[in-house]
Amino acid sequence: MISPLVEAGIEHAVSDTILADSGCPPRKKGEMNFGDEVAVKVLLSTFIVFDILACASTRSTPSLELDHKVVLNALAMDLERLFGYATWLLVLLLEVVLLDNWKKEAEKDRKLSMVELVQRGAKIESLLQQKLRDLDATFPLGSHQLENSGTTSTDFTATQTEITRIFALSVLTYLHVVVSGPYPNLPEITESVSKTIIAFERLSDVKVIRYLVWPFCVSGCLALEGQQNFFRDLASRVKIINSTLRTFPEAYKIIEECYETRKACSYCDWASVVNEQGYDILLM
Predict the structure, then answer these.
(1) Direct distance between the N- and C-terminal alpha carbons of the chain, in angstroms, rounded to an integer
(2) Residue 185: its pLDDT value, please?
(3) Residues 6 or more apart from 277 whose CB is under 8 A from it?
């Protein structure tokens, strides 16, 4: 079932694309009509987004044999309207996924250069931090109030902003995990998780959390002991345990299992729980 946000996003994205290309000449024999082209773009964008999120959920390699960045740029779809987060965010998440896989391959071949790892990580972090600064300058945290009633353009922009900020902060946490390991006491991880918690606290409508499964899971798994009750309380607020809010029940279960694992072993993140328990899950 398509969520209301995605359904509204598809409607906006498709209508915007149709308006932009309404002056196209009639198609020739054998060519797809414009509606078919839009449908293909939406479907291909969806596959690519799901592939990136699947990799981020399990810390695995992309399954689609495509250059995701090139394809996304070529499609020129408004992913923010389709999924709630901007193309630049998906691209930076993909960069972290690729860095993660590069590190694993280098470790396996015993030729990991920590200098190169840190340099590549710093480049991605710089881009993420700049985007977060731009976001904060344009849409200060907590500056928007959502109405529960609908999908007006103001509501839509506010929702996109909140989702993008929390996702970007969680991508930053993921990046720190790749570079330094999944240790909540690391200052950089403590900082990014703390900022994510604040962003969750400032959500103008708790229902938006249904679009934030991956950030909820990533940040929750990397929470300090003193922060863990926040994620339990947040789970309780949206009635995750007994709800049908997509994969939130599984995400919450992963968080709690990570807390239990960390009591005996300091090394634990969302992906280690997913892989060890054999979960087949897309944190979306």
Answers:
(1) 13
(2) 95
(3) 254, 257
Cα–Cα distance for residue pair 100/64, rounded to 1 Å: 17
- Domain with 156 in it: 85-277
Residue pLDDT, tens place only, 175-199 = 999 999 999 999 999 999 999 999 9
- DSSP string covering the chain, please? ---HHHHHHHHHHHHHHHHHTTTPPPPPTTPPPHHHHHHHHHHHHHHHHHHHHHHHHHT---SS-S-HHHHHHHHT--HHHHHSS-HHHHHHHHHHHHHHHHHHHHHHTT---HHHHHHHHHHHHHHHHHHHHHHHHHS-TT-----TT---HHHHHHHHHHHHHHHHHHHHHHHHHHHH-S-TTSHHHHHHHHHHHHHHHT-S-GGGGGG-HHHHHHHHHT--GGGHHHHHHHHHHTT-TT--STTHHHHHHHHHHHHHHHHH-S---HHHHHHHHT------
**Is the separation of the CB atoms in 121 and 175 below 8 Å?**
yes
Residue 16 has pLDDT above 50, yes or no: no
82 vs 122, which has greater pLDDT? 122
pTM of the model: 0.81
Tokens standing for residue 281: 């899950």
Count of structural domains, the chain:
1
User: Does residue 63 lie in a domain region?
Assistant: no
Q: What is the mean pLDDT of the chain?
A: 80
Position 17 in a domain: no
Q: Given this model, what pLDDT does residue 211 score?
A: 83
Closest CA to 51 of 284, 217, 276, 279: 284
Average pLDDT over residues 45-66: 84
The pLDDT tens digits for 61-97 are: 887 777 787 777 777 667 767 776 788 998 999 999 9
Residue 72 inside a domain? The answer is no
Q: Is residue 273 part of a domain?
A: yes
